[in-house]
Amino acid sequence: MKLNFLKNPSRTPLVWLMLIMDALLITISFLAITLMHASAAEKPFHDYLTMIAYVLPIVLVTRLIVFACFNLYRSGWRYAGLHDAVNIAKAVAVSAMIAYIITTIASRLSHHAFSYSVFISLGDMVIATVLITTMRFSMRLKKEFLRRSTGRKNVLIVGAGDAGVMLLREISSHLPQYAVVGFIDDDPQKQNMIIQGVPVLGTRAQLETIVHTTFAEEVFIAIPSASGFAIKEVAETCNALKIKYKTLPSVNDIMDGKVTISDLREVDILDVLRRDPVELDLPAIKNKIKGKRVLVTGAGGSIGSEMCRQIALFKPEELILLELCEFNLYQIDRELKAKFPELKICPYIADIKNESRLDHIFAEHKPQIVFHAAAYKHVPIMELNPLEAVLNNVKGTYQIAMAADKHGCEEFIQISTDKAVKPSSIMGATKRVAEKFVQSLNTISSTRFISVRFGNVLGSSGSVLPLFREQIIKGGPVTVTHPDMTRYFMLIPEAAQLVLEAATIGQGGEIFILNMGEPVKIVDLAHQLIKLMGKRPGTDIQIVYTGLRPGEKLHEQLVYDGSEQPTKMKKIMVTRTNPEDYDELKEKIMELIDMAAFGHESEMRDELLKIVPEYTPDTNHANA
């Protein structure tokens, strides 16, 4: 048992309040039983003053330390139950026994008769248990009384800005079962303000104390611009207090700036991993997109669909959606038409490997800008299906890029990956071939071809989060490949916005690299998600290490040799390498595609190594 409460500054006010109250009740209990003993023995009370002076400090200190060891200062007393009452009785009994032993030994060593007599110790134990239990349970009784008398649930709103005030109005108008008892805000200017009759009670650091004093039962986080750290801090406090909490989406997710009750949702790991909002050059993006015909491949995928949402905000003339999966296309088409009824949206079921299909669509719409987000990206699956990886990621990119060149597109932006850097997987190697091809094509085309490279996107299909969630819901274990594995992570909206930004500064031939921040350990991500879902890692949910999968690296990197240069956008870097000769590279790529098409896997792998000599295949799984 540890004295954890002494190491948590955020709990200091409440802990000290409880310590003072307990010390007062312990003193009252001791004095009361001593007075009763004096009365029963028909002795004057002052005869006991020496004993009180020696014994009371020992009883007081011993009891408070034992209470701490029994975690009495970590419990949520507004929810006190039978278990807590038993725990109090145990703590009082143990502390009484320890105090009795200490005072008896001290009395004999000092030759003074001031020991904690059996009568006093037993009586003190009973009175102290009753007083302390009553005090603790009074908090629950008060909460239940207030709840029953009003019939409403007390809630706190974290964030007294525009979103918080709009949320307050929504609750007042549509949710009479809630009573907003206060705001929490870190802005010093807002402290002690009253906003529409609701006071600002304190800061996030005081949240625990405020929850106890207001008997709040839910917390609503209304700070769309909040950092992931702020969300995590509030979530951890609420989890410790065992109260519910919800949040509004980030500024990236609230497109129209309005806040409604329906926007409130459970906090998830994506909220905790939020980074500072991207500072976009909105006029430049608007100038790039507005009134243009824009085509997005892989439009129903995680990245492609978000690209479509972001592009639609800037009012293109028409948005052409290319997607192989019918259901994904149906979903994004329906969503966009509901949110942007004025926008002309043209959904197409299309395989990017189908040259004639692409030629028909490009001839029909003459897109001016192409965002190429269609790719196979799951590393272990592609290791087992290398022929399809080449056909989709290389041939598909070749076909869509050639169509863009043929039909006079202004700009072609390819979504690439950190796995293309010194690749160890088929997926990474095929993406590197795609990077090389569009860079070489840029040298002979009037179309500007650029690539944008970033790492893993949290929440995208195939990412670790859906798997971890599913495993936690089932009770575990959560499977992590290696305790030291790290990955760069970015949220989907941020990635899409930075791709748009890169499109505005690209001159052609560049590989832009998004600033992914510091790499994240996968096991840390698992720990955070387990805690966020109200479980304890290693206790409620076990973590099991399964070993690296086919083609996986322990650590990814975004650049080859540190040759990246900053751009005017602080979250975007650029690397410029000498493009390969177009005709020579095209010939090699056509041979690679032919080998894949005819199923010559071994020869295909050899050709891939010629195009990407830095590719280091996983020989253990190369022929799996």
Structural overview:
The protein is elongated. The protein is α/β, with parallel strands linked by helices and 624 residues long. It is built from 20 helices and 22 strands. The strands form 5 sheets. It has a 9-stranded mixed beta sheet with strand order 10-9-8-11-12-13-18-22-21, sandwiched between helices. 42% of the residues are buried. It folds into 3 domains: 4-148, no CATH class; 152-272, NAD(P)-binding Rossmann-like Domain (Rossmann fold); 282-457 and 489-516 and 557-611, NAD(P)-binding Rossmann-like Domain (Rossmann fold), CATH 3.40.50.720.
Amino-to-carboxy terminus distance:
51 Å
Number of DSSP helical runs: 20
CATH H-tier superfamily of the largest domain:
NAD(P)-binding Rossmann-like Domain
Shape: elongated
- Uncertain segments are 1-10
Radius of gyration: 33 Å
What is the name of the CATH class of the largest domain? Alpha Beta
Reported CATH architecture of the largest domain: 3-Layer(aba) Sandwich
The main pleated sheet reads as:
9 strands, mixed
Helical percentage: 40-55%
At the fold tier of CATH, the topology name of the largest domain is Rossmann fold
In total, the number of strands is 22
Give the amount of beta strand, in percent: 5-15%
Computed structural class? alpha/beta
Overall domain count: 3
Query: How confident is the prediction overall: mean pLDDT?
Result: 82
For the largest beta sheet, what order do the strands appear in spatially? 10-9-8-11-12-13-18-22-21
What attributes does this structure have?
3 domains; alpha/beta; 624 residues; 22 strands; Rossmann fold
